[in-house]
Amino acid sequence: MSHPRTLVALATYNEIDALPRLVDEILGVLPDADLLIVDDNSPDGTGRWCDERAAVEPRLTCFHRPGKLGLGSATLEAVRYALAHEYDLFVTLDADGSHDPSHLPGLIAATEQADVAIGSRYCAGGATEGWPFYRRVLSRTLNGLSRAALRLPVCDSSGSCRAYRISKLREVRLEDIEADGYAYLEEILWHLQRVGASFVEVPITFRQRRGGRSKMSLREALGKLTTLVRLVPKRSG
After folding, report:
1. Strand 162-165 to strand 127-129: parallel, antiparallel, or no bridges (unpaired)?
2. Burial, 183: exposed, middle or buried (Cβ in 10 Å; 0-12, 13-18, 19+)?
3. DSSP assignment of 69-91, as one string?
4. Rounded to the nearest 5 degrees, what angle is found at the Cα of 163, between the Cα atoms of 105 and 151?
5. Tens of pLDDT along 26-66?
6. d(Cα 165, Cα 124) in Å, to the nearest integer?
7. Which CATH code fits 6-234?
8. Distance (Å, rounded) from C-alpha 30 to C-alpha 229?
9. Which of 48, 90, 197, 205 has the highest Cβ tally under 10 A?
10. Given this model, what pLDDT does residue 214 score?
């Protein structure tokens, strides 16, 4: 039985501390997958390292963008690459080592029963380690608001550890996704739900990032709330 053609995408900005090890782990646990890194002109040398690694690793491709344009727009650029190159599955995870690549084979296997498999911190068996109390409260609150406002049928709508069937992503008008930051995580699920996507959650343990600083900020949290306000009136449309 042939393996589905799989593309794993990482959006990077100043991830040189965690990325080399993470790339090795991903390529190790998914020997048949390709890896695409979209780097937003990281000043710490992340992009340069990606080019050096891609020169000796044919499964790795690196896109360079002119500046910090946001997680959402980086991921959508990777989606378009996956569509254009006719992959079967599109997989994302954080580039800072928060998501253990050992979860990826199970996540991919779960797409046999659903269009979108979500590595979930908040379903039964999921967990978060190393976060301060305020981060836990903020994440739980935003997830609760997303579920209630958008009626998303998942416990964890704001995590980026996911696997999507390309056949279902083709049904989404990517140009309709307006969020360019972290809020895209909820918005793309909302669009997928509107085209009849099925979802499954796979429990994972999310751990505090291995290096660097978190990209989540008050501005990103407000961006999520703004996205909810924008989408709610369209919910029944």
Report:
1. unpaired
2. buried
3. --HHHHHHHHHHHHHHTT-SEEE
4. 135
5. 999 999 999 999 999 999 999 999 999 999 999 999 999 99
6. 23
7. 3.90.550.10
8. 38
9. 90
10. 53
